[in-house]
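Archive entry: two folds, one per protein. Generate the first.
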Amino acid sequence: MRRRRELAERTRIPDSIDQALAHLAKPLYKDFHAELYTVFRVTRIFNNDLQREVDRLEIKAGYSIDTARRQLEYNDNCDGVEFIWMYKYRCASIKLLEKLVHLTLRARGAALVPRPCPGCGVRHREFFLVSAAGGIDGLCVIIEFWLGALGQPIQRLSIPPVN
């Protein structure tokens, strides 16, 4: 109960960078070794200004113990949505790393995608608009910065496609 109360207090800190520092000072959750992956989601939306459908590119940094299994889950559940898997990083403090990356994206003004997935209807959390996140290069810089700050090895691995 105390851990939950302390975590709730941190989320009430208005500044994202101050939240990140609070998480660094004393992590409140059990962490483990896994992979942080980056993935693009391509969705078709209607653009009112252009009066036609256009592709919108969204990006996510999430973690999984088995990235190949996660790829299959997305491909099986989200019909009609294209996912482009980019890079993965191994980390011993994966929950902390993911939290710090998301807080940094929010501090930079990256907006979460407000709509549910057109393929499965679920609102996948943590997809950000690519333009606000700085693209894949901007996201990788953030991830690699926090890996270095956490004293973790920085090794960017390409994610092979899974069928």
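Generate the second and append.
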Amino acid sequence: MVRIGTLVLHVADVHRAARFWTGALGYVLRDGPIGDESPVLVPADGNGPTITLDETDSTHLDLHVADEAEQRAEVERLISLGARRVPWRYPDDANFVVLADPDGNLCCVVNTGAG
């Protein structure tokens, strides 16, 4: 069964968003001070999904699965529930499949076992 691994939030300013969400949720920056374009916030106690802040990506859920077989099965299960595949330009080493829910909200089914 898929689980929410990451919430990707589209933000206008990663520094401002990081200050807000770390304060609001008690999360911390995973790799220390912001040094890239998409900082990742993690629960200080280690329990719960991560939050990735991104100025270019749209807000969506990353749904995690353990391996390729589970990814295929979960993609098909989600499609049977009303999701649809989204045309996407995938990199050669993509470990994710982009879907949209019945309302058009995006989510990625991510194989966390792939390199």
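Annotation attached to the second fold: The chain has a mean pLDDT of 93. Residues 69 and 94 are 15 Å apart (CA to CA).
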